[in-house]
């Protein structure tokens, strides 16, 4: 029985490196920079592979669809593409005077979607209602949600993804609770080249990036999708009872505790003079507490543990009654109190506060 080679049998890619690089996978010339060409080839191949979604090859088909999406998302993200091309040996020459980012309105104007007067009207509409320009042009019915999202992706220097083309990785979805995806309007997708791909309505904020990094210990690469597609994805993949919310929350709490412990340990090893004024004050207070407890604990142990048990001095019958130390340690009840507090105080002054 012949083993199915989806790259050769479905995409016509000659035998060679498996999996093929992004350019070979999307049937592109190596280092192709034309974004529209990249998107066009992706759409054609995506439609072709979808023909195999029903039947015995449905799993292989979806796996290949996700591979195509990962390749397209990488090659349409300027920063990710540059890094990927460099890994393939491409040498970039720094180009001076490159054009700055274009606004969403300018992008839609250049594409002939809206006119300049309509762009100004949309901006006023957005300001008056506290909307983003992307939402404003959709609400004013100047364009559809997908076109507006694609323009936003171009403005942000991100990739656009139709979520209908991919199925997120369950292992990724399990690590992010519904409360997080709802709060930030995101849908975690899959890990690609040690980076987590996350579908977003807008550019993610620092809070989300920090939480995702804590959960996965990986950086994220946002891709833009329409708000409706993300909401539908959340409803589909986070249906009640589908995800173990408690496991995801316990995992993040455990990582947070470890991170806090590492932070405290790092601060504890910092030199006193390298600390901020607030941290120096905190360390001063802790030092006083340590000295107090060193003294109190020593007295308590002497009085309630050692007195009359392990120390014979002052027992009334011992030959040690006349021992000279009995004048310093009457009845033997201040043995630890005599040695421990000075040691603790010395450590605080000479080590902890240095």
The main sheet orders its strands as 1-4-3-2
The number of helical runs is: 17
Question: Which percent range fits the helix content?
Answer: 55-70%
Overall average residue pLDDT:
84
Our Rg estimate from Cα atoms comes to 33 Å
- The total count of strands amounts to 4
Unreliable runs: 313-332
Order of secondary-structure elements: HHHHHHHHHEHHEEHEHHHHH
Shape estimate: elongated
End-to-end separation: 74 Å
Q: Quick one: biggest sheet?
A: 4 strands, mixed
Oligomer: single chain
Quick tags:
57% helix, 17 helices, mainly alpha
Description:
A four-stranded mixed beta sheet has the order 1-4-3-2, with helices on both faces. 24% of the residues are buried. 57% of the residues lie in helices and 5% in strands. The radius of gyration is 33 Å and the shape is elongated. Helix 12 (206-216) links the parallel strand 3 and strand 4. Helix 7 (116-129) crosses helix 8 (133-139). It is mainly alpha-helical and 354 residues long. The chain is built from 17 helices and four strands. The protein has helices at residues 6-9, 22-25, 35-49, 58-75, 78-87, 104-110, 116-129, 133-139, 145-156, 170-173, 178-184, 206-216, 227-237, 245-269, 277-306, 325-328, 335-352; strands spanning 159-160, 186-191, 196-200, 220-224.
Kindly summarize this structure in a few lines.
With 354 residues, this protein is mainly alpha-helical.
Secondary-structure topology with pairs:
Layout: H1 6-9, H2 22-25, H3 35-49, H4 58-75, H5 78-87, H6 104-110, H7 116-129, H8 133-139, H9 145-156, E1 159-160, H10 170-173, H11 178-184, E2 186-191, E3 196-200, H12 206-216, E4 220-224, H13 227-237, H14 245-269, H15 277-306, H16 325-328, H17 335-352
Parallel strand pairs: 1-4, 3-4
Antiparallel strand pairs: 2-3
Helix pairs in contact: 3-4, 6-9, 7-8, 8-9, 15-17
């Amino acid at each position: 029985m012949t083993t199915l080679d989806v790259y050769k049998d479905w995409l016509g890619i000659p035998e060679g490196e498996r999996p093929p690089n992004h350019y070979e996978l999307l049937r592109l010339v190596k280092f192709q920079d034309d974004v529209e060409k990249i998107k066009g080839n992706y759409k054609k191949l995506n439609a072709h592979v979808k023909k195999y979604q029903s039947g015995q090859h449905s799993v292989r088909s979806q796996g290949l669809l996700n591979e195509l999406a990962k390749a397209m998302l990488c090659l349409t993200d300027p920063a990710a593409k540059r890094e990927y091309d460099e890994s393939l040996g491409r040498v970039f020459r720094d180009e001076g005077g490159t054009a700055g980012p274009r606004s969403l309105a300018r992008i839609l104007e250049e594409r002939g979607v809206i006119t300049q007067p309509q762009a100004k009207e949309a901006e006023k509409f957005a300001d008056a209602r506290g909307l983003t320009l992307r939402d404003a042009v959709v609400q004013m019915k100047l364009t559809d949600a997908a076109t507006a999202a694609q323009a936003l992706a171009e403005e942000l220097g991100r990739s656009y993804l139709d979520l209908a083309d991919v199925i997120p990785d369950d292992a990724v979805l399990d690590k992010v609770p519904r409360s997080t995806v709802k709060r930030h309007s995101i849908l975690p997708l899959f890990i690609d080249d040690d980076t987590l791909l996350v579908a977003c309505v807008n550019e993610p904020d620092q809070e989300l990036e920090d939480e995702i990094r804590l959960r996965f210990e990986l950086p994220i690469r946002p891709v833009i999708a329409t708000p409706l597609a993300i909401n539908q994805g959340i409803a589909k993949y986070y249906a009640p009872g589908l995800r173990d919310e408690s496991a995801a929350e316990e995992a993040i709490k455990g990582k947070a505790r470890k991170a806090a412990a590492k932070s405290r340990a790092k601060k504890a090893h910092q030199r006193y003079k390298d600390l901020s004024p607030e941290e120096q004050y905190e360390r001063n207070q802790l030092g006083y507490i340590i000295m107090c407890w060193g003294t109190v604990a020593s007295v308590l142990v002497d009085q309630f543990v050692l007195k009359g048990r392990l120390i014979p001095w002052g027992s009334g019958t011992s030959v040690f009654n006349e021992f000279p130390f009995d004048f310093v340690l009457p009845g033997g009840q201040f043995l630890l109190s005599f040695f421990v507090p000075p040691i603790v105080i010395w450590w605080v002054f000479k080590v902890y506060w240095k």
